[in-house]
Amino acid sequence: MDERSAQHRWERRTQQPLMGLAVVFAAAYAVPIIWPDASQAVTEACEVVEWVVWGAFSLDYLVRLVLTERRGEFVRTHWLDLCAVLLPLIQPLRLLRVVATVLLVGQRARMATQIRLTTYVAGAVVALMMFGSLAVLSVERESPDGNIKSMGDAVWWSFTTMTTVGYGDHAPTTGLGRMIAVGLMLSGIALLGVVTANIAAWFIARFESDDVEERRQTAAIEALAEEVRALRAQVAALSDSSGKVPEKSRT
Amino acid sequence: MDERSAQHRWERRTQQPLMGLAVVFAAAYAVPIIWPDASQAVTEACEVVEWVVWGAFSLDYLVRLVLTERRGEFVRTHWLDLCAVLLPLIQPLRLLRVVATVLLVGQRARMATQIRLTTYVAGAVVALMMFGSLAVLSVERESPDGNIKSMGDAVWWSFTTMTTVGYGDHAPTTGLGRMIAVGLMLSGIALLGVVTANIAAWFIARFESDDVEERRQTAAIEALAEEVRALRAQVAALSDSSGKVPEKSRT
Amino acid sequence: MDERSAQHRWERRTQQPLMGLAVVFAAAYAVPIIWPDASQAVTEACEVVEWVVWGAFSLDYLVRLVLTERRGEFVRTHWLDLCAVLLPLIQPLRLLRVVATVLLVGQRARMATQIRLTTYVAGAVVALMMFGSLAVLSVERESPDGNIKSMGDAVWWSFTTMTTVGYGDHAPTTGLGRMIAVGLMLSGIALLGVVTANIAAWFIARFESDDVEERRQTAAIEALAEEVRALRAQVAALSDSSGKVPEKSRT
Amino acid sequence: MDERSAQHRWERRTQQPLMGLAVVFAAAYAVPIIWPDASQAVTEACEVVEWVVWGAFSLDYLVRLVLTERRGEFVRTHWLDLCAVLLPLIQPLRLLRVVATVLLVGQRARMATQIRLTTYVAGAVVALMMFGSLAVLSVERESPDGNIKSMGDAVWWSFTTMTTVGYGDHAPTTGLGRMIAVGLMLSGIALLGVVTANIAAWFIARFESDDVEERRQTAAIEALAEEVRALRAQVAALSDSSGKVPEKSRT
């Protein structure tokens, strides 16, 4: 109980600094892609920042693992976090580091109970769109057949993809770019589902609030309770008049 | 209570004239775009009408602000209206004036309690489609690479966008045009959600009306009430026969 | 009551012949479009058949109007039917005749109570897709810029439109063709909504059947009824033993 | 009863070997399409494997038909399986054999009660996408106008189709390819519906769990039960004091 609370306290205290680091990571990822003519020093600094942020989230995972009571269960329910921690060590590609950090940040944000579902979904959609645009731009810019050559095109393309509009005026042509696109499409379907489900739940809640059957039930129960109360009064009167009921049994 | 009612009365009385002004605004916005060879005088008259309608809605906001009881709360809950009032003053661009007026009209229409949700959504969709088409046309017509050159193309494009079909035979190529397009796409997703949610709510309401469990419950309660009624009759008979119950305790 | 029943009897008896006529109409509409080299005689025969079927449905409307009790209400609730009857008389265009007959058939089918909702929606989607394909083909074939030149292209295009996929390899280029396309898109959105709503209603019905709260309620009521039954037995025993309760008051 | 159980036992025991055979079939179908320069021997071996797997599923259908009690009902409710068994015998085309086997595998998987709905839908979507990609590739590669020439293009195209994004950079041009595409589109709509419905059902379940009305009901019933319990105590005391109640009537 106490250890679980230690883990909980850690999670609450590190919440804000870690989210700040996530923003730093996003900037460090964006700079060399948006500004391809940046000097060697800038690019290297950005890479160091990326490794540091990934390291901070990996450390956070390890601390939570140490603080938790049931370690086996923690590893099993957070296997995706474990993959995200190990992946950049095995294959230090830039894209894998991004995927790993986005996963770690996303899992961490989902755990923060003070963040409501709608905020989480909106944040995830914006983050996916931003990282998707950047990743596709960095991949497609080098392809000779590519048609996504500027940040504007990349953002425009990711909007047409996530809303499933898909004009096709810009589309990835490389294998890696298409894999990122598939990720955005699936997120887009999930987004559509969440929007529709939200509206539907709200509509249905309004429909149900004037549910006739339920009201009739409550009325029936209340009428019945009234009946029983009257009955008790009668029985009480009966026993009073017969003068033989012990006082302690009356409530 | 009285002041809130003054605000309420104002809102009800100005509802119709303001909606009429909104139609006038739409016409004044459409004329110079659909008819680009119009004389200087016509274009200027349209601009004056636009400023007048925006002014009327700004005045309406101020009157409501004066009439309301809790001014602080009013400003906080209507911050979007405040932005819409101030925006054209800071940056007198045509597009901003349109966005501001559409926002003010939309907020005003949403407050009108006699307008039902479906009417509001349908109206919002039609208005967004119309203004979206006009705005994209005015932006894209001047772009050398643009492929939206006539009103017909613009309306057709906005339909393919809002329904998320997205053929891609016409698509905006400028940054401003694409920002308007993103607005239409998001409205299209919301439209899809509202349509689906409406149908789903109707389906579920039909499903629930023959809900077996609820009926069993009501039946159970009614049977129980019957039981208790019989019991009361017995007790009444018992007390009558014993002749000792005071009359006042019987209901 | 009797007159309403006369209308009802008419509707039930004419149901099947009218649906047969609808199929004949579809064939008569399709032949000159699919087979553009047909002789003058065939084309004229098809036109005669179209007018005859439209006439039959108009006659059906008039007979129902005569048989109904409240004529004013009938005209008001069936104003779309009235338009469909009058439209081809005012403007004898082929497309208007098609729209009129499709409307009359659709309204008639919806009234047939033995047809279930799913069947109606599926039928409406197939009919709209077929008529949409044919109408777009007949319009676009004559356009010099058109890219829908064969029946195969038209059907393929209508599938990509109704499912909101919208590849854009084929798309209408004429104003009339685009108006038909907008109709198909809106039907596609409705179709998506119906499919999703159907699945959602089924899911929710399954979720609710194992609703824990409801079961606890029923259990609570049953336990309560048990309690009351035991109480009645006690009271009965009490009154039996005191030997004074009149037999008629016991149930 | 016993025979039904025999059928049931057969279905449970053959479940895993048949699913293994389905994977073998998928491999045998994929090899000659992905590797078109394979030697004659490989192609022929793959064809033999396809016939063997189809034969195994046909045999499974016949064994279940023999083991079932009500043969007439089994044939009627499994008419799709019967078609799938007979189709490749009548017309030994490769595509028909694939459709037949996919149908038989799908029906068999749906019957396996231990597989949950979400797993079934996910499996069906992946299988449809894989077979759709392969089938379209094999059809379009031979078309001179085709633009789906590699496995990568085919998978990318099937993703853009099932998510209804539809860029149109790759699209089938032959009749057969388009028929497969329509199948994928319809599956995509169903997929969207299932995703949305799942989220909606989960949302609504959460909304309902804090349903105020229901809680008030349960509270009302519990209060009522408390009342009745007190009443029983009173009656018991009354009867005890009068000393005349037979012991057996008390619970």
UniProtKB/TrEMBL annotation, chains A, B, C, D:
Gene3D superfamilies: 1.10.287.70, 1.20.5.110, Voltage-gated potassium channels. Chain C. It is found in: Membrane. It is a multi-pass membrane protein. Residues 129-203 form the Potassium channel domain. GO terms for biological process: action potential. GO terms for molecular function: voltage-gated potassium channel activity. Its main location: membrane. Residues 214-241 form a coiled coil. InterPro entries: K_chnl_dom, VG_K_chnl, Volt_channel_dom_sf. GO terms for cellular component: voltage-gated potassium channel complex. This is Ion transporter.
